[in-house]
Specification:
Oligomer: heterodimer
CATH architecture of chain B: Orthogonal Bundle
Radius of gyration of chain B: 21 Å
Largest sheet of chain A: 5 strands, mixed
Largest interface: A-B, 23 and 32 residues
Shape of chain B: globular
Number of helices of chain A: 3
CATH superfamily of chain A: NADH:ubiquinone oxidoreductase Nqo5 subunit
Largest sheet of chain B: 3 strands, antiparallel
């Protein structure tokens, strides 16, 4: 795939094989790729809590025409841009990440607790999540 | 005059939600104005659990992500480990896996046919479908010791050599015969046709935009089947079913036709296995198994769409992060769009036709 056109607009991005590392302008990057390249499916969004406390978001695009994968990786603190207006499936992924990692997506106002109860504190897939949560032990000895 | 809308809870304890799915519907009379799926009733923390367990400890649990197609998920995890360690599985193991995956696909589709027809009010096809599925489950039980949670694929191979091949032959000949019966009692049934034809039409662009994969996508006219790129299926002659219309009936049709294609693949696998020698494999020693540092990714064409597994390893015994992608999860999200504008009595037919299974959604 010819990435020169992409480089002209987003010169600060780094391309490693089928992975693009970006620093900012997530929405613009994905919009540009969707409009100019044949990637038609957002397979999933993967979130990873790094040891230094930052979050890595990997947007996994796929082309059913060329059968090619493209990963777009960005490091965020606790906020990211939503891409629901580009791929509707992102609603499902962003909601899951919001629930399990506590990352807010600006532009998506339909975020809610998904797997965890509404009143649950903390986000289970964060590395600093407390493991011995007494709320998980429903026995008589437990007051919680 | 003010127009009042009615909010209706569909589920979570509704027989046709195939698990525990709650749909919050907003109705104007019989018409659905909006749909908000509420999931998480079956959440078991599969991804969190992985971070605390070694790979071999985690392997038996992955069958439970989709208990109707357990082989697919153990295959994914095995594939991740094999990829990371650079192991190439022997030819015979590959064919055994293909045979079992396709049998599993048939049993999963058969269950769906029965359950879908039951959703629509027809009770007897359920028993026919379960009778045929039972043969496959009995075979799995004989081979693996379990009817649903097999734990049969292990890193580098399979637990024991395949056996009872004449039984598989019997199963596929019975199933392909019974498919004609299904055509007679289901596909030609006027009530069934009325309830599914032109209901819940999913067009190509919407399907792609909502990340729908698998049979649902192919029923909407997109020719995308991951099995064609899959190394596991190398050397097999695979047929795929691509239909254009994208309504509930087409999705039903696509699944029944896919069973026929799976039978063809099983026949090829049987031909190979009957002539093959005794199984020779070198299994990975799971004690102290550590994956080299890096990101690993594996995909498979599961019965409910593309399933994939992502693992980031830091060279430890446990994965640093493990993520599953499951087809049903995105089908639930699609309900927000697909049910709007339809009538309430079609809601069950439409959501049922997408083949949503909740353990896969909630993970």
């Amino acid at each position: 795939m010819d990435w020169n056109k992409f480089y002209e607009v987003f010169s600060d991005c780094e391309i490693q094989g089928s992975k693009i590392l970006i620093k900012s302008r997530l929405h613009d990057v994905i919009k540009f790729i969707k409009e100019n390249y044949p990637f038609d499916i957002l397979k999933e969004i993967i979130a990873i809590h790094n040891q230094d406390g930052s979050f890595e978001l990997i947007y996994h695009l796929y082309s059913t025409i060329d059968e090619e994968n493209l990963l777009i990786s960005i490091f965020v603190k606790d906020k990211a841009e939503s891409i629901v207006d580009l791929f509707k499936s992102a609603q499902a992924d962003e909601n899951e990440i919001y629930d399990l990692f506590g990352i807010e997506f600006t532009g998506n106002d339909n975020l809610k607790r998904l797997y965890m109860p509404e009143s649950w504190e903390g986000h289970p897939l964060r590395k600093d999540y407390v493991q011995d949560d007494t709320r998980l032990c429903w026995n008589d000895d437990n007051d919680a | 005059m003010t127009i009042t809308t009615l909010k209706l809870n569909l589920g979570p304890q509704h027989p046709s939600t195939h698990g525990v799915l709650r749909l919050l519907l907003e109705l104007d009379g019989e018409k659905i104005l909006s749909c908000e799926p509420d999931i998480g009733y079956l959440h078991r923390g599969m991804e969190k659990m992985a971070e605390k367990l070694s790979y071999i400890q985690y392997l038996p649990t992955v069958d439970r992500i989709d208990y109707l197609a357990g082989f697919f998920y153990s295959e994914l995890l095995c594939r991740i480990v094999e990829k990371a360690l650079g192991i190439e599985i022997p030819e015979k193991v590959r064919v055994i896996r293909v045979l079992l995956l396709e049998l599993n696909r048939i049993s999963s589709h058969l269950l769906w046919i029965g359950a879908f027809l039951m959703d629509l009010g027809a009770v007897s096809p359920f028993f026919y479908a379960f009778r045929d599925r039972e043969m496959i489950l009995r075979y799995f039980e004989k081979l693996t010791g379990q009817r649903m949670m097999y734990n049969y694929f292990v890193f580098g191979g399979v637990r024991r050599d395949i056996d009872f091949l004449e039984e598989v032959e019997n199963i596929i000949s019975v199933v392909s015969e019974k498919l004609n019966d299904y055509d007679k009692i289901i596909t030609e049934n006027p009530i069934f046709l009325r309830r599914t034809l032109n209901k819940g039409i999913l067009d190509k662009e919407t399907a792609l935009n909502y990340s729908i994969t698998g049979v649902n996508l192919r029923a909407s006219g997109v020719d995308f089947d991951y099995r064609f790129q899959d190394c596991l299926y190398k050397g097999f002659d695979i047929g795929t079913v691509v239909l254009e219309k994208g309504d509930a009936f087409t999705r039903y049709q696509a699944r029944t036709l896919e069973i026929k294609e799976s039978i063809k693949i099983i026949r090829q696998a049987l031909d190979y296995l009957k002539k093959s020698a005794k199984l020779e494999q070198k299994l990975v020693n799971p004690v102290n198994l550590k994956l080299p540092e890096g990101d690993y990714y594996a995909d498979i064409e599961a019965p409910r769409g593309l399933a994939s597994c992502f693992v980031r390893s830091l060279g430890e015994k446990e994965p640093y992060r493990l993520k599953w992608r499951t087809g049903s999860y995105y089908s639930v999200n699609l309900l927000r769009k697909l049910l709007v504008g339809e009538f309430l009595n079609d809601a069950i037919a439409i959501s049922g036709s997408l083949d949503i299974i909740l353990p896969e959604v909630d993970k």
